[in-house]
Write a structure and sequence with these properties.
Arc Repressor Mutant, subunit A; Beta Polymerase, domain 2; three-stranded antiparallel β-sheet; alpha+beta; 167 residues; four-stranded mixed β-sheet; 2 domains; ArsR family transcriptional regulator
């Protein structure tokens, strides 16, 4: 969906990185390495996004660090678009449908760090969770979101995790 609207794959990667959670940040060379892209391609997209006000720049240890501009009027909307692009809303809906007494749903792993690795990891905490149901819905969810999905149960909250439901 997002990749059809925005034809630059690099820009989509940057939007996922910075708008999956506002806690993510990065600098030019680190992002180039993470995305396995040239620094020129990354620089061009970072400049476009920061010139439009979507990203903020800060100098940190002689490097320019970029992060999402939470004050931008479209910040929340972009964050919702990224979550929808990744299928996180679909995953939460499917889990809550017949899962049991769910207290919290947390995105962990690569996607919580803004890395579009193709494997979405979800931690579910609660009482009497129907794990058979989650096993049965994984193929359906994977088909909808076009990514592999792994469920974990009752893990301790992750420092990098993003709470999708509960709290």
């Amino acid at each position: 969906m997002l990749d059809l609207l925005i034809t630059s794959k690099t820009r989509v990667k940057l939007l996922v990185k910075f708008f999956i959670t506002s806690a993510n940040s990065g600098h030019l060379r680190g992002l180039a390495t993470e995305f396995n892209e040239s620094t020129n391609a990354i620089r061009k997209e970072l400049n476009h996004l920061s010139d439009a006000g979507y990203l903020e720049k800060k100098e940190v240890s002689n490097k320019i660090a970029y992060a999402a501009n939470e004050q931008h009027p479209m910040f929340k909307l972009l964050q919702q678009v990224v979550h929808k692009y990744l299928g996180l809303d679909t995953i939460v809906e499917q889990i809550l449908e017949r899962m049991g007494d769910v207290k919290q749903i947390e995105l962990i792993g690569d996607y919580a760090k803004g890395i579009d690795s193709g494997i979405i990891e979800i931690n579910i905490t609660g009482n009497t969770i129907n794990t058979e149901y989650t096993k049965s819905i994984i193929p359906k969810i994977e088909e909808i979101v076009n990514r592999k999905v792994l469920f974990h149960y009752d893990r301790a909250l992750s420092e990098d995790g993003i709470v999708l439901f509960g709290g």
